[in-house]
Design a protein that fits this description.
Elements lengths: L1 E10 L3 E11 L4 E5 L6 H8 L7 E6 L2 E2 L8 H5 L2 E4 L11 H11 L4 H14 L15 H12 L6 E5 L7 H16 L3 E5 L3 H7 L2 E6 L2 E7 L12 H12 L7 H9 L5 H5 L3 H6 L4 H20 L1
The protein binds adenosine-5'-diphosphate.
Adenosine-5'-diphosphate binds next to strand 2 and helix 1.
Length: 304
């Protein structure tokens, strides 16, 4: 359903918010996106809802090439998503019921359908008896549930929430989690950005962990279980190259000799004496090549 392929996002001033992000999501999945502040989670979400475009890489939602959606088709795309932002954003001048009515009205629904759907959504989040209250009269947990109800108005294929339990006590947080589970059971794919260990560990579902703009772990389980994500073909190729050629620019036979002697970094190469080189059975040619390599390296160091 969703694919991030080699996605990077750089901002002015050389800030790398996302650095080669690769992951995919199947329809119907429930997953958490976790990681410390500044890891790039919000940026990833903003790319997904096309508030931003990546610097490189591609993002596909089903067969839609997200960064290249023409502006006039953006509203149609966004109607396929249900998004709850960190700061909730319920309209303060409208009651909870009116907030949801309004979202349905924008979608062009008829009055009868608006009423029925609003009732259904209020029921889903357990707020039927609070429908006539204004946002400031609702508790934090109720506001959050109200925002979720409103985000569900368009019956989204993908539901995304940024820290939906962020400011809630455990009871309220678990109530919200139950609603998210319900949404997922109904077939909607759910992506939750969260810092909430209690919630993540309760679900035992997929956890994608980001750090410094990279996905550093992708596994099913607890918040703190780290499992290196599956390597892409590109990563594997690079690893193989690295393995075969520790010292880039040196021939494979020289690399093989160095590897056999467990000489694994430049510091060790620099410390090799003539006797060492003799003991390692380098040919004259190989010795010359290695000396040239060391000279180049030292010159480059001086320049840097
Ligand atoms: P998270 O949501 O995980 O806390 P963000 O996606 O908000 O992380 O931020 C990732 C990095 O990108 C941070 O270093 C942040 O300062 C930077 N960043 C985010 N948005 C912008 C922007 N509009 N301009 C410049 N830098 C940004």
């Amino acid at each position: 359903m969703l694919l991030f392929d080699k996605v990077s996002k750089k901002y002015d001033g050389d800030i790398t918010a996302l650095d080669n992000i690769n992951f995919s999501v199947e329809q119907g999945e429930f997953f958490f996106l976790v990681g410390p502040s500044g890891a790039g989670k919000t940026t990833l979400m903003r790319l997904l809802i096309r508030e931003e475009v990546p610097t490189s890489g591609s993002i596909f939602f089903k067969d839609i090439d997200v960064p290249n959606i023409p502006n006039k088709l953006l509203p149609t795309y966004r109607q396929r998503l249900g998004v709850v932002f960190q700061d909730i954003k319920l309209l303060s001048s409208k009651t909870l019921e009116e907030n949801i009515n309004f979202a349905l009205d924008i979608l062009g629904k008829e009055d009868k359908e608006i009423k029925e759907t609003t009732d259904y959504l209020l029921e889903t989040v357990g707020l039927q008896d609070r429908k006539n209250l204004f946002p400031h009269q609702l508790s934090g947990g109720e506001q959050q549930r109200g925002a979720i109800a409103r985000a569900l108005a368009n019956n989204p294929e993908l539901f995304i929430a940024d820290e939906p339990t962020g400011n809630l006590d455990p009871d309220n947080a678990f109530q919200v989690l139950d609603i998210l589970k319900k949404i997922n059971k109904g077939g909607t794919t759910v992506m939750i950005i969260s810092h909430d260990r209690g919630i993540v560990n309760e679900m035992k579902t997929r956890v994608v962990r980001m750090e410094k703009g990279k996905v550093i772990s992708d596994n099913h389980g607890d918040y703190d279980t780290i499992k290196t994500p599956k390597k892409t073909e590109d990563d594997k190729k690079k690893d193989e190259e690295k393995k075969n050629q520790k010292f880039k620019g040196l021939s494979k036979d020289i690399n093989d000799i160095l590897e056999k002697a467990k000489i694994s970094d430049m510091e060790m190469v620099l410390n090799l004496t003539d006797t060492d080189l003799g003991n390692l059975n380098f040919s004259h040619e190989q010795k010359d090549d290695l000396e040239k390599y060391v000279k180049n390296y030292l010159n480059k160091e001086k320049h840097d």
